[in-house]
Specification:
Helices cover 57% and strands 9% of the residues. It is built from three helices and two strands. By secondary structure, the chain is mainly α.
């Protein structure tokens, strides 16, 4: 499973909720011995679109293209 690396958040409440969600997701897959890898948002965009600062619309288009 791939999961986004932790980033610094300005809102402590949002950061706490994000950390809890990440922890729950990682625990769920680790229980089934699924390997977990962490990636930055730019690494994912680079792999999907070809450039690390792609717009969300570009990423969405390429994901649809790959899944068809």
């Amino acid at each position: 499973m791939g999961i986004e690396n932790v980033f610094l958040a300005r809102n402590p409440d949002s950061a706490l909720k994000l950390g809890q969600a990440r922890g729950a997701a990682i625990c769920a897959v680790m229980a089934d011995y699924i390997p977990v890898a962490e990636y930055t948002a730019n690494q994912v965009k680079q792999a999907i679109v070809g450039k690390g600062h792609a717009a969300k619309a570009q990423v969405q288009h390429m994901v649809k293209f790959y899944l068809m």
